[in-house]
Structure formats: C-alpha cells, structure tokens
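User: I'll paste a sequence; please echo it back and then give the predicted structure.

Assistant: Echoing your sequence first, then the prediction.
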Amino acid sequence: MTREELQGALDQLLEPVRFRDYCPNGLQVEGRGEISSIVSGVTSSLALIEAAVETGADAILVHHGLFWKGDDMRVTGPKKRRLEALLKNDTNLFAYHLPLDAHGELGNNAALAKQLGFTLTGRFAEQDIGFLGELPAAMTAQDVATLVGERLGRTPLLVGDGARMVRKVAWCTGGAQGYFDQAIAAGCDLYLSGEISEQTTHLARESGVPYIAAGHHATERYGVQAVGAWLAQNHGLAHRFIEIANPA
C-alpha cells in the first residue's frame, strides 16, 4: 500500500481528530512512498529504529513518537541521531499516543485487559481514556498483583491494602497516576497504571483503594502489536513487533 493509504487506514481506525493530545498523531517522519512491511514498537528510540532498519521495514509504528509539546525544538543529540537514522534509510515513522490508548478493541487499555483477563464495563476520566472492568472472580489485591507480574513478566509495585478483596478494577496504561482520584470516584476496588508518584502512595493508603504500578513500558506493549496485526490481516502488510527492553 502507499504511505498515504497507510496513513488513511490508521487515521480511520484510531480517529486522532477526536483527541486533544500533546503530540502530533500520524505520520511524523516521511519515508518511502510504497509500504509492504512495518515494525511496531513502544517508543521511537534509536535502538528500535536501527532494529527496524535492519529488518528492511518500510515503516515504524510506535506509541511514543519523536515530537512533544514543550520539547526543545533544536535537532541535536539523541533527536538528531534518531532522525538521521530514519531519513538516511527512507523509513516512515507513524506515532499514535492517546488514540492508541483509548481504542476500544486494539488500544493499549483494551489489549492490556485481554492480557489480564479483565472484562470491560465502562470508561472514566477525560476523553474516556480510563477503563473500568471486573475480574472473573473476586481475589485479593496481592493476588491481582501476582497475576499482573505473571502476565506482564515484570514484578509490579503494590501500594495499599494487599488483603483487600477486589472485583471492580480501573486501569489506564502508562503515566496515568493522575487519574487515581477519578478511578476511586468511579467506584473501583483497585487501580492499575504504569507509573506511580509520591502522592499516589498516600492516596492509596488513605482511600483504602490499592494501587498497582505495573510499569509504563510493560503496560503499553500490546496496543501497537494489536494494530500491527490488524494491518497485516486487513491490508496485507508484513508485520513484526520489536521489543526494546525497558525497566521503567
């Protein structure tokens, strides 16, 4: 397919015009016009770009792109090296941030729910970014944390009452600790996100709602994989997900 056709397919699927975001969604770096193979990954790091180039990919699809509001606009250091690798090899870079978090079937939150066995029951927070759901059966917060560690391959941090029985869960991948208050107001028994802030600890202890920080990268590996698989199935592109290990 052409670059424009790929852009159109992704925009139709993820609907970036619906979101107020702090980065450009869609094509961030223009490469070759014909695309037959695509690599997906979480972040447009130099390691991912070089690995994608090594496979001969025509395009890279990521959740975290190169450009963010408030960034230094100078093309120096790591940004220069990433752009240089893309431009030198005529490789397209597509990035979708909040649209990829929010998609109800293929997004990060939906895909994480499938990994963890959560059943979706609703949404919360601005732009419906946060997800609400239920466990198949009630279990303690500590047992939920153990499950998360087993499914994601990374030991999460559990803060709060590990003995609390949990049935209703709320979650939002990545750096969504700022939605904890809203998750509590929505009636969850436990909240899960990627990161944790200093004040999150006190809120978990004082509210009685345990908080699981499962890793920003670890919780956001599944949306790009799902969209890449969708492109392969519906548009005939060769797709490969490349994992660049990240402990954060």
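Residues 103-214 form a domain with the Udp-n-acetylmuramoylalanyl-d-glutamate--2,6- Diaminopimelate Ligase; Chain: A, domain 1 fold (CATH 3.40.1390.30). The mean pLDDT is 98.
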